[in-house]
Amino acid sequence: MLNTMTTPTAPVPHPGPMLTFPARILEIKEEAYAIATYQIAFESEAVRKTYRFRPGQFNMLYLPGIGEVPISMSSDPAESEVIGHTIRYAGNVTRAISRLQTGDVIGVRGPYGSYWPMERLIGDDLCIVTGGIGLAPLRPVIYHVLRHREQYGRVYLLYGARTPKDMLYTDEYEAWKQQGIQILLTVDRADPSWRGNVGVVPMLFYQLRLDPKKTAVLTCGPEIMIHFVIYEALARRISKERIYVSMERNMKCGVGLCGHCQFGPAFVCKEGPVFAYAAIEPFFGVEEF
Amino acid sequence: MPELTPTIGAFVSIEKGRLQNVMDALKAAGYTLVGPTLDEGAIVYDEIEGVADLPRGWTDRQEPASYRLQRREDDAYFGYVVGPHSWKKFLLPPRRTLMRVVKKEGAFVVVDEEEPAPRYAFIGVRGCEMQAIHIQDRVFLGGPYQDPGYRARRQQAFVLAVNCTEPGGTCFCASMGTGPEVGLGYDLALTELDDIFIVEIGSELGATMMRETDWRPAGAFELQQARDALAEARRNMGRQLDTTDLPNLLYKNLEHARWDQVADRCLSCGNCTMVCPTCFCQDVLDVSDLKGETFERVWVWDSCFSIDYSHVHGGNIRPHTRARYRQWLTHKFASWIDQFGVIGCVGCGRCITWCPVGIDVTEEIDAIRGEV
Ligand SMILES: Cc1cc2nc3c(=O)[nH]c(=O)nc-3n(C[C@H](O)[C@H](O)[C@H](O)COP(=O)(O)OP(=O)(O)OC[C@H]3O[C@@H](n4cnc5c(N)ncnc54)[C@H](O)[C@@H]3O)c2cc1C
Ligand code: SF4
Ligand code: SF4
User: Fold this and answer.
1) In chain B, whose CA is at the least distance from the CA of A43?
2) Measuring CA to CA, which residue among B294, B150, B105, B259 is closest to residue A2?
3) CATH number of the domain to which A229 belongs
4) Which one of B274, B276, B364 would you pick to mutate in the ligand 2 pocket, going by the greatest count of ligand atoms within 8 A of its CB?
5) Residues A184 and A254 reside in one and the same domain
6) Strand partners, B108
7) Containing domain of residue A174, as a range?
8) pLDDT tens digit sequence for B74-93
9) Residues of B with CB below 8 A from A15's CB?
10) What is the pLDDT of residues B327-363, one digit of tens each?
11) Which of A164, A177, A262, A275 is the most buried (most CB within 10 A)?
12) In a domain, A190, yes or no
């Protein structure tokens, strides 16, 4: 046991799990106000060739002298030589990332954490419910579904943003629809161009007729939104085991050594970020837990 | 030299002064000795040269929020219990560089920066502390990701343990099953009697270190004396704790009124986490040189009571003391079991002694148990 240093998905055997690997920014695409997607590739060919991730996992992105933050992969897991990260400029580190340009080098280590159980969901209808930046860790799910469309039944994307301008990946929706993903959008505040729904994401459930025995819910977003998503899903008799939630907690290491991301019995970086709701039910919603 | 090297599992007895021979053998083998010594009114763990540096003839009086040194009537070498330090200070130093990054032509190079690990001989590891080391082994070496620095220091540490015959006022190791007798994992274990030490040989290495020491097989009477002293110690614990079904008890009482009451007293100072031998939470600091060319990432001890610990963008998960204390206590006594397969408390009593307001974990748990 003393010599196993990597999980099956980690890049290369490594003397220290906290050591970062330089990676170059190949492309930056503005997605919305203060949100952009960074396409990056490891400098080392060996790392680039061995690195694999699954939908829902995250990397730790590092800027020398500034800090390190957990960010989900938002790109197609089948093409892991170039990795996409969609980042919202929130505070210290992410704002420093906003000042970077194509060609700059950052540190990257990963992949870490649990993932959306795409194999277990084969044959199911998928109901992806998300708000704001929460779509980023679910986009790999959509890419996976598109590549294996015949393996899944009906697929719904329920997505909400503050305003139409805050919606991510809008230029891809048409292609997703054409391949049989039903997209329902909503905004908190409409603008003159908006013809769609106005209101919170969980309300979109009322426009669907789900088969509770076949449907799995995959959700990521603000905790308050997740709360109501769970409520609506349970009300439709979808079982706790088939509601998957991605959680967010402060993380300093991503590998279970810093303690910060504890959520009761779980380390969000190891057992999470993706949990079956059944596993966290006793603790989810306990105030300040 | 079979007659000079005792066998593993053997109990031998040595004149007390001969302990210096064992220490000399350790030093000759390249070990840095660390052990209890007097410093600024407390018994701390620091580098020592030999028996002369031990707090011989001293004892400590410990109560909630109170620690006092006192002269003993005898000149026992180990007549005290544990102080504010624990061995995590050496296995997991409070500040460690984890990597260095050097900027070079628009990119950077990563330098693996764990310093070579010192070879420590820990002198005077108590039962609770031995278990605390095993617990941190599980944290840092038991999972898929391991701390290489911890591993290096731990693998080459020599453990000279000491059985406790006089528990302190805040000790409850007997309740936690970690003392007063040291469990497995030591190289040598001492029991101090009036004029001899009984030494149990725990490992090959331990046996080797006894070679230069004048020892003889322990006599039946001496062994009985040692057993009696330990049984007596077990009866004299300053505190006790009913550990029945703790995870369920705590998980079912996450909204108990007691959390509010303890939050009225708790200062959120984090002392309890600093002195606790099993607490392992860490933060990472980013440090740069003045020219902005080399950067370091530094591990430092952190505490679940610190303000930024649970920070996520837009606020803290646990802004209130109630939630922080609840996190700390439920982690130690409940979720630790889910995470690492062992309870996170060894009953050393440090958090009780060193809490400035004297909050006592055993009392808090009793209160939660009593009112359900
Ligand atoms: C598993 C996981 C996946 C994530 N995926 C994405 C993503 O795909 N895109 C995205 O934009 N954001 C994502 N986040 C959130 C992102 O990590 C935070 O926005 C970021 O850490 C903020 O850091 P900062 O220095 O800019 O902000 P500050 O507020 O200055 O934060 C200071 C420090 O607190 C910690 N911190 C702050 N907020 C968070 C947070 N929400 N989660 C964890 N640690 C935090 C970090 O250690 C950070 O360095 C994810 C978080 C987690 C836990
Ligand atoms: S919780 Fe308190 S008594 Fe238990 S090991 Fe930590 S410091 Fe010792
Ligand atoms: S319990 Fe005591 S030592 Fe711990 S944070 Fe509160 S006041 Fe400080």
Assistant:
1) B107
2) B150
3) 3.40.50.80
4) B276
5) yes
6) B103
7) 125-280
8) 999 999 999 999 999 999 99
9) 112, 148
10) 999 999 999 999 999 999 999 999 999 999 999 999 9
11) A262
12) yes
